[in-house]
Fold this sequence. Notes:
Blueprint: H1 2-15, E1 57-68, E2 71-82, E3 86-90, H2 97-104, E4 112-117, E5 120-121, H3 127-132, E6 135-138, H4 150-156, H5 164-177, H6 179-182, H7 194-206, E7 212-216, H8 224-239, E8 243-248, H9 251-257, E9 260-265, E10 268-274, H10 275-278, H11 282-288
Parallel strand pairs: 3-8, 3-9, 6-7, 7-8
Antiparallel strand pairs: 1-2, 1-4, 4-5, 9-10
Helix pairs in contact: 1-4, 1-5, 4-7, 7-8
Amino acid sequence: MIRVWSRRIWGTARSARWWGERSRAPFSPPPLAGGGRGLGAPTPPPNPLPQGEGENSLLTLSGIDTFYGPVQVHFGLDLSVPRGQIVSLLGGNASGKSTTMKVILGLVRPRAGRVAFDTSDITGLPTPQIIRRGIGSVPEARRLFATMTVRENLLMGAYCRGDRVAIAQDLDRLLTLFPRVAQRLDQRAGTLSGGEQQMVAMARALMGRPQLLCMDEPTMGLSPLYVDRVLALIQAVNKEGITVFMVEQNASLALAIADYGYVLQSGRIMLSGPAKDLIRDPRIRDAYLGGETTKVL
């Protein structure tokens, strides 16, 4: 059934008059359908909050307490992602980063607190509803459909959409943005390299026309060459008007492209501020960027 659906979309693209005339118009979201060494005790953020927080905040987490059984993961977690920015959540292993992403996507329901997206409360909504509201997910380890082709994986990202001509147009636009993906359309996704799979995962999420792109460890396991390519693509996507929230353990890479950053340790925000300030903070350098007595994460 999936293969039949994808062939019909592809046929629409091939027969449309615009085919071959690569459109470079920016992506526009559709209307809404409905670790390392410790940093010490928490201190008030010394830097200003993200520019535009409040009325211009696209995503806000307020007072989040999360549990796995009796074990508490988050302790009053607060963070904000302003429209049009790249915001990075940093932290070592078992700091609560991936659980933060699961809370946003509705995969884990917090015991207390609120998740707001575009001013609407989405706390505890089923994941399909959250995706339809305009949040795209690039999960840790990519999670592609390994036995399906790259083309079929991309079209699965538009499964919630019914506008076939627009889907085909978006596919064409994405193949321009991801030329390496365009060269692999008929190849099974499971046979791609890690870097190529990451690009497919990004493109698949963008096929849903999200307002917010949530990325969990996008550089994990990639070669240095593909790390640079993926970071450049994240910046390119952001310039198209898509807000990016990135969970990352490699602080130097994340802060190099982010506008704002948060540092999470043991479920609590320990530091936050503009990325250009955090990357110069001695506590960040020692704990995450390889200080004199600290190993690089």
